[in-house]
Amino acid sequence: MPTVVKRPGAAGKAAALPSANQRTGGQILIDSLRVHGVERAFCVPGESYIAALDALHDAPEIDLIVCRHESGAAMMADAYGKMTGNPGICFVTRGPGATNASAGIHIAFQDSTPMILIIGQVARRMLDREAFQEIDYRRMFGQMAKWVAQIDDAARIPEYISRAFHTATSGRPGPVVLAIPEDVFRERAFARDARAFVRAATHPGAPDMAKLRDLLSEAKNPFVILGGGGWNAAACADIRQFVERNKLPVGTAFRCQDYFDNTLPNYVGDVGIGINPKLTARIRDADLLIDVGSRLEEMVTSGYTLIDIPQPKQTLVHVYPGAEELGRVYRPDLPIHASMPAFAAAAAAMEPVGFAPWAERVPTARAEFIEWTTPRATPGAIQMGEIMAYLRDTLPADAIICNGAGNYTTWVHRYYRFRRYRTQLAPRCGSMGYSLPAAVSAKRHYPGRPVIAFVGDGCFMMTAQELATAVMYRLAVIVIVINNGMYGTIRMHQERNYPKRAYGVDLANPDFAAFARAFGAVGETIHRTEDFVPAFERALTTDRPVVLELLLDPEVITPTRTLSEIQEEALSRLAQG
After folding, report:
1. 548-557 confidence digits (pLDDT tens)
2. Distance between CA atoms of 288 and 465, rounded to whole angstroms?
3. Potential cystine with 162: which of 31, 125, 185, 194 (Cβ 3.0-4.6 Å)?
């Protein structure tokens, strides 16, 4: 008799998996996913992997979410990977399906999210003939994924899947792409299942931690930045202990604001787009910069101007889970190759420095953060600052806030206060269309928690079809559409560089509330700030998706600047030569 591997099923019962019997490639694949603990997968169905769909029919413990576009499916998988730390699984068909999914792969790569994309490929006998929808995915995704491979032998599927899980979660997390020809899905083979993957961790050495403490004890003005991938709630708790015991000021990297409770006195702001100028000055003036987890990429460094390249003037401690990143752009004085949970645990256990001359300046930095995040009045009947202040004061700490890309996100980043890890789902790579798919994924995973998706009118229409997915699965997400009738970020840049020459940015939008109702969701249009609260309270008690359309004055392009002000400044600058 074949041996079996037992693992807890969806209901906590042991499920027996065959480990040495003859199965189709599709069955071997799905059994492999079950072995590695996959509980959910996202897909747009395709005939190239129909045998895998047939195998999923017999694997009810894997929750299959059928989406309306491959970009949405891939973004949902990315959001799952962000929330859980385990690879988000996405199935797409060949050619157009794979190219559509590339948006999610790019997000997962730049955001360091574990993810596995499985593509149905053309049959092996048709390869290299440019058959219908054929693409060489090694070439297509080569720079966009940690590993890209094609499985041409059904018997080797467990081997490839095991490697995929280990690769996606080790070092700097990221996406893996596996193409499987459709005849491999159908062929029968003997294959022995691998055991469940084991997450590899890199630990800082004792000399590294001793050197870190020495640098900290010698510093007069240190600053800590938290960011990147590979974190978990325990790591956030440990890093909080390190920060508080050493009385350090801490900021979070772009769209990593939920790594440190924003209501705590050591938190002094986010280090990203639209950074507080006073925070910029503090980072520039720091004599010790401890960067934990971020790559110190463009968004964190204000276009690589905040920190000198290649040798920062600050003493730089750079902690990162991938050795290839250390020294890539900035030459650190102390590079520490370590996984985030391992480093955070070591930092929490480190004996705190006895004298902290910087401690007396932390309250001032905190006061600057409070002042910066106090809403200001803007033109028009909709005051986004007031709305965000209401949400931050009303929503529970476990509410999940999602957003995509666009100027509308500045109100979320600036005025909301994140209190728990993984309550922020947003693409650090700046991809539009992310918010709604992420919200669908989040609500499926955490049905009892409020999930709010902020979208711009341009951002929403990139993946608005996933509203049908939310309706189909009765996921009561709340979508807040901030409608100003244009691609606002591009318009802002046009006015800065080519004032009074706006072109190609105007949008003709549908009635978004009616659009939502057509899907079977609830839709309301908000014209005034005072109408928002009752509409939002109704949304919280609704058992299906709700779309709240906010009609924002086009002049309100940032929390502090209007389009006209940006335009006039640009004209004045040009007039002065």
Report:
1. 999 999 999 9
2. 47
3. 194
Phi-psi region of 261 (alpha: psi -120 to 50; beta: other; left: phi over 0): beta
Q: What angle do CA 71, 77, 83 make, to 5 degrees?
A: 135
Burial of 66 (0-12, 13-18, 19+ CB in 10 A): middle
Query: CA-to-CA distance for 443 and 313, rounded, in angstroms?
Result: 44
Token look-up 């957003």 returns 403
Distance separating alpha carbons of residues 567 and 573, to the nearest angstrom: 10
CA torsion sign for 114, 119, 124, 128 is negative
Handedness of CA 306, 312, 317, 321 (dihedral sign): positive
Which parts of the chain have pLDDT scores under 50? 1-16, 18-19
User: Is there a single domain that holds both residue 46 and residue 83?
Assistant: yes
Global pTM?
0.94
The verdict on residue 102 lying in a domain is yes
CA torsion, ordered 467, 468, 472, 476, to nearest 10 deg: 20
Q: Per-residue pLDDT tens for 367-411?
A: 999 999 999 999 999 999 999 999 999 999 999 999 999 999 999
Domain boundary among 342, 371, 400: 371
